[in-house]
Design the sequence.
């Protein structure tokens, strides 16, 4: 253990060796926080702390697995006894142990988002509400947000502010839907993802004996990525650490980017207020990136007001300047980025997997996909359809879920007529009504169907019930793989897929086989003590996108992903694309300083993914809702210290407004760009745009006769002077120096200028 400690720098060593009492570790990007957290846990065990009394919470199963593996390499098999996992997996484990106290059984189902939305759609239909107003996605998000704030159905209905908000959104019945949804989930012996946290809070609130049990059980509580915790998660960890006060949180407020999921940056900003005796240690040395990248990132995040000040630095090489690519359109942006990747691969001998393209929204991937395909560069998109969200996978999982939990109404509705048994929607609805009228679970009706339904449908349902009963007999005798393989074969699912000889049918059949492979891998994993089907279903229900495997073995691909999905990852060469106002920062995140600062943190996260080379790009125009839109550079691009930027050269055919390409002036174009950025940055206030009220007689002029030196008015940018004209076929551009908004290059076919 001493040898490992000697590899740490002074702040890292201080954090690892810290004794008892609250500890906050502020870990800058690339500062080795995982190593510190790992060694701290290992050191506690080395000092004699029982691993069973250590609780370590992460945000992905992958992170927990990596940490456990590292700890095991230091202290051996004792690492397996640590309570370590994601918030949801650890608290699901506690809820299964204590389920009876909340009126559940230990084999409760965990609904995914699709299950929840399906149930909500059913309730909305039963209530006779307009599903165009009461969209399942909107209602689900409202309920999810309420649970993350620990607002239950009754509190939701009785809160006048919430009710006024729903009324203003023309969906005043959300509270009633929420209450029915909670009742139906409870009746189905099911919890959704948010319930795992909500119900843990309820458990600890209403059952102090259970809270005391776990408070004394966990002598040390450690939380990774603390800046991403929501109110519910923080309250649980604060309660659990209340007795021993040995809470250690690790995070970076500069990387708090999940407010839309309920993350509350105030948790980390105000931690010292909740724990006045806390020891705060800052990890400020970056081991990942070049000095250029680190300093550029610092120049961005320094503009945020709400932050814990730190001085991130690195002893790494200076590295190359950050390239800035200016494209005429989004399609050209795709071509420029693909060409840059090709050139860097050839010139530096790099592989495809050394590159990542990061964008603000998934919709931006199209231009880059097309450009990469044309250059025969292999790529992967992170954030597409999850393996476990594919229909054929969800079908088999529904069979497995219903075998374990016969109260699972959503699983029942999915499989009752799959493969087809001649049981229509009318019959299924009738069963639901009978169950509700008799206050019976659906399974009680199905298992004794002849008492309620007659005819061919009753025969089919009876056959289905006999099938499920036979599956239930296997649960205590066989492991998860044996039960799942038997169900896949005897239910008819595998045969139906095998009989479909289309390319799509073959792919679906192979996907089900891959699911069975995954179950076999789960059973054969020595780390899994519980090999039951119930244990496997819980493991699957708690998977995050970061935990899933690639679809193939070829990992030499350029990665395309949103910046949110890239958090925690690092790449040799990073391209951050679409740096335009209203795209990044998003126009949805400009209503408050808090929103804008979160967008800036998102940009900071993107920059700090890069190890050696960073490229930024933007387009001067792109299609938006079917119309070509003129774009202006993002304020974030203008906030980067210009000492670290250079304008990349464009192809010779891409002429500047003065008729000379940047290739003709290799330094002139770059220096002009830098000077322009410096001037704009010097003038810039928190909001880059200057509001302008158009003149009373404002009406767009015919710009056919527009000439250099003319005075013009723009509806948004105000008054300015034409500095240059660029006529390239039918595409006419004007460079205009606006009095307040600065210099802009506008397409005249869209600009709507009034000649003064």
Sequence:
């Amino acid at each position: 253990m001493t040898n490992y400690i000697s590899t740490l720098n002074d702040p890292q060593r201080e954090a690892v060796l810290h004794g008892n009492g609250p500890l906050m570790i502020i870990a800058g990007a690339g500062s080795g926080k995982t190593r510190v957290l790992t060694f701290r846990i290992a050191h506690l065990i080395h000092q004699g702390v029982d691993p069973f009394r250590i609780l370590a919470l992460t945000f992905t199963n992958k992170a927990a697995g990596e940490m456990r593996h590292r700890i095991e390499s230091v202290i051996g098999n004792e690492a397996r006894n640590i309570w370590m996992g994601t918030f949801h997996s650890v608290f699901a484990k506690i809820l299964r142990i204590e389920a009876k106290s909340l009126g559940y059984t230990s084999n409760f189902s965990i609904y995914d988002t699709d299950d929840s939305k399906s149930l909500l759609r059913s309730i909305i239909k039963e209530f006779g509400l307009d599903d165009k107003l009461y969209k399942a996605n909107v209602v689900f998000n409202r309920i999810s947000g309420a649970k993350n704030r620990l607002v239950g159905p009754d509190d939701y209905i009785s809160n006048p502010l919430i009710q006024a908000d729903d009324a203003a959104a023309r969906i005043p019945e959300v509270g009633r839907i929420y209450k029915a949804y909670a009742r139906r989930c409870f009746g189905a012996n099911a919890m959704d993802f948010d319930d795992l946290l909500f119900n843990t809070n309820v458990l600890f609130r209403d059952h102090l004996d259970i809270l005391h049990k776990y408070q004394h059980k966990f002598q040390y509580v450690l939380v990774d990525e603390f800046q991403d915790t929501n109110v519910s998660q923080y309250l649980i960890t604060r309660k659990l650490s209340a007795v021993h006060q040995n809470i250690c949180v690790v995070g970076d407020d500069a990387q708090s980017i999940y407010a839309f999921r309920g993350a509350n940056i105030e948790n980390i900003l105000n931690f010292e207020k909740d724990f006045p005796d806390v020891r705060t240690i800052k990890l400020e040395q970056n081991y990942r990136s070049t000095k250029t990248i680190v300093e550029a990132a610092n120049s961005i995040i320094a503009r945020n007001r709400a932050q814990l000040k730190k001085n991130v630095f690195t002893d790494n090489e200076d590295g190359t300047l950050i390239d800035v690519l200016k494209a005429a359109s989004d399609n050209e942006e795709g071509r420029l980025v693909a060409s840059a990747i090709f050139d860097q691969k050839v010139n530096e001998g790099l592989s495809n997997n050394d590159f990542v393209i990061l964008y603000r929204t998934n919709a931006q991937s199209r231009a880059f996909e097309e450009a990469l395909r044309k250059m025969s560069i292999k790529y992967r998109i992170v954030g597409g359809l999850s393996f476990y969200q594919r229909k054929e996978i969800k079908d088999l999982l529904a069979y497995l879920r219903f075998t374990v939990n016969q109260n699972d109404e959503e699983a029942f509705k999915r499989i009752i007529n799959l493969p087809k048994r001649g049981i229509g929607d009318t019959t299924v609805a009738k069963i639901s009504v009978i169950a509700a009228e008799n206050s019976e679970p659906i399974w009680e009706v199905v298992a004794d169907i002849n008492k309620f339904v007659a005819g061919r449908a009753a025969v089919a349902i009876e056959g289905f019930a006999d099938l499920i009963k036979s599956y239930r007999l296997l649960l205590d005798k066989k492991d998860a793989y044996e039960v799942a393989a038997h169900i896949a074969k005897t239910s008819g699912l595998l045969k139906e897929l095998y009989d479909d000889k289309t390319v799509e049918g073959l792919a679906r059949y192979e996907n089900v086989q891959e699911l069975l492979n995954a179950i076999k891998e789960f059973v054969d994993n020595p780390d899994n003590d519980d090999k039951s089907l119930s244990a496997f279903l819980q493991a699957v229900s708690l998977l995050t996108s970061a935990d899933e495997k690639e679809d193939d073995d070829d990992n030499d691909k350029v990665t395309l992903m949103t910046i949110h999905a890239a958090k925690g990852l690092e790449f040799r060469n990073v391209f951050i694309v679409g740096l335009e106002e209203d795209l990044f920062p998003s126009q949805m995140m400009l209503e408050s300083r808090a929103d804008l600062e979160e967008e800036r943190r998102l940009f900071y996260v993107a920059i700090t993914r890069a190890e050696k080379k960073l490229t930024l790009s933007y387009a001067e125009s792109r299609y938006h809702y079917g119309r070509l839109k003129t774009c202006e550079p993002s304020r974030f691009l203008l906030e980067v210290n210009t000492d670290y930027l250079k304008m990349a050269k464009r192809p010779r055919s891409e002429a500047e407004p003065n008729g000379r390409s940047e290739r003709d002036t290799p330094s002139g174009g770059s220096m002009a760009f830098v000077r322009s950025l410096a001037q704009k940055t010097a003038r810039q206030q928190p909001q880059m745009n200057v509001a302008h009220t158009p003149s009373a007689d404002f009406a767009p002029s015919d710009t056919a006769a527009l000439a250099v030196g003319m005075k013009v008015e723009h509806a948004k940018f105000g008054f300015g002077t034409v500095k240059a004209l660029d006529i390239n076929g039918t595409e006419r551009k004007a460079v205009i120096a606006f009095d307040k908004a600065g210099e802009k290059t506008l397409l005249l076919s869209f600009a709507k200028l009034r000649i003064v």
About this structure: The CA atoms of residues 17 and 40 lie 7 Å apart. DSSP finds 32 helices and 22 strands in the chain. Confidence is low (pLDDT under 50) at residues 651-671, 680-690. The radius of gyration is 29 Å.
